[in-house]
Design goal:
The protein is an alpha+beta fold. The chain has one domain (5-128): Hotdog Thioesterase (Thiol Ester Dehydrase, Chain A). 19% of the residues lie in helices and 37% in strands. The chain has helices at residues 22-31, 47-61, and strands at 18-19, 68-77, 86-99, 102-113, 118-128. The protein has a five-stranded antiparallel β-sheet. The longest helix is centred in the middle third of the chain and has 15 residues, at 47-61. The protein is globular, with a radius of gyration of 16 Å. The model has no long low-confidence stretch (mean pLDDT 93).
């Protein structure tokens, strides 16, 4: 089933609050084959929240994750993440277009702290594979 282009501009509810902990930063670093020494939080850490926001969007729209190919991901920071930050992410559908029977979905997710201040914005391109 194609993704409805009328979703462009729709923002989904924010994720539940997520605390950036040393254990979670080490866990993410380990999955990428890196070590984390307690220094700055890796700049790709917001993917944890962006992925949760993306999954909520896919579930809300009945899109199967197995039909998604991740095409691109970018991060734009207002400030670095810190251990102890409590963050949420809200996804907005920025674009939907069909190419060769597949849907190319552009999303943005705003990662905000408990005061509502923007910490990081992410953008992603998702390719939704059409029916075989």
């Amino acid at each position: 089933m194609p993704v409805d282009a009328s979703l462009v501009g729709r923002t989904y509810p924010p994720t539940r609050p997520y605390t950036v902990s040393e254990a979670k930063v080490r866990e993410l670093a380990a999955t990428t084959g890196a070590d984390w020494d307690g220094g700055p939080v890796p700049p790709t850490f917001p993917i944890v929240l962006a992925f949760e926001a993306m999954n909520a969007f896919l579930e809300a729209e009945g899109v199967e994750l197995a039909r998604i190919v991740h095409g691109d991901q970018k991060f734009r920071y207002e400030r670095p993440l810190r251990v102890g930050d409590v963050l949420t992410a809200a996804l907005t559908v920025a674009s939907v277009r069909s190419i060769g029977g597949n849907d190319v979905i552009g999303t943005t997710s705003e990662v905000r702290d408990v005061d509502g201040a923007l910490v990081c914005a992410t953008s992603a391109t998702l390719v939704h594979r059409g029916a075989a």
